[in-house]
Amino acid sequence: MEDRQSAPEEPQEKSPSSTADDALVAARGAAQSAASRLREGVNAVRDVRAAARRHSSARARLREMTEALEADEAALERRDEVAATYEQIVEEQGAAVAEAKAEISRQRELVERAEQRAASLEEQLEQLRENNEEELRPYKRLAETARGRSEEASRGVSEAKRAVRTAEGQAKDAAERREQSISSANRAIDSSQARLRKVEEELRKARDGHAAAGAVKQLQDDVTTELAHVEAARAEVSVVTRDAQSAVDAAQTHLWTQKKSLEEAQREADAARREYENRKQDYEERLARARDAEEDLEDQISSLRKEAEEAKAAHDEAAERHDEAQALLDEAEEVHATPEETKRLRASVAAQRAEIEAQQGVVDELAEGERSLRTSTRGSRLVLLAAAVAVVVVIVAIVALIVTR
Q1: Which of 69, 85, 74 is nearest to 328 (CA)?
Q2: Tens digit of pLDDT for each residue in 240-273?
Q3: Around Cβ 338, how many Cβ atoms within 10 Å?
Q4: pTM, to two decimals
């Protein structure tokens, strides 16, 4: 064999396909690693939750056992206390029961007596009301009748006042017409006398002037005529004055008559009002006395009802005291008669305490296991949390990208 010096090998360049395969292998490895870590995180969370549930269930069981023990300890303590003071309880509560029974009986009698008396008084009250109504009915009727007469008389006064006012108006009108008629008649006299004086002046002037005889004669006739007119006017004044005064006198007489009627109506109204007031006062006094008698019975009934209610309340209080004392007495008798139950309860309390101590050990062990598991899986759970956050971020980014488009 020839000794030959080997030439150094030159590095060969990788082809593009080889590089892609390596990248694919690396990507697969990374994906598998990530998936493995995620599975570890999911398993860690599941294991922690399971440990927490076991711990919580153990603590709940411990709490239930503790509550049951406390109830049994209280019952045992109560039985021991009752057993230790049995004779005292029997003596005291027996006396309390007897006293309460006596009080119940006494209060029951008071209730029955008060209710019977109240019922009797209510019958008396009902009868009294009927009697009072019957006795007061005629007085009430008299008062109502008197009131009717008083009201009627008052209406008569009002009518008489209206008649007086009418008569006063008529009298005033008659007086005014009298003055007007007399004034008119006097004015007629004045006019006739003025015409007479004028004709007499004309006649004088005619005579003084030596007027024709025919003219003087005519003027003389006119004077005669005017004189007749003056006399007639004077006579008319007397007639008008007499007639107008007669009308005034008639109106005054009518007014006087109406005033007399008003006075009479007022007297009748006053008498009717006084009668009504007397009848009303008599009825109201009788009614007040009747009401006082009824109210007296009502007060007695109310007092008896109140007495019965108070006795009922005292009866109920005595019944409560009786029931409480009897319950204590029954409890003492039951404890005294069943010492085996006390013994059983004492053994049960001791057993429960041992069970609770064992359960407390289980709770402590589970708590320590939960704490250890949380510590050992902290990294895996944080990886899972980070992955979940990353997924949320990617989803938010995708949504934001869609929205911006």
Answers
A1: 85
A2: 777 777 877 787 888 788 888 888 989 998 999 9
A3: 13
A4: 0.48
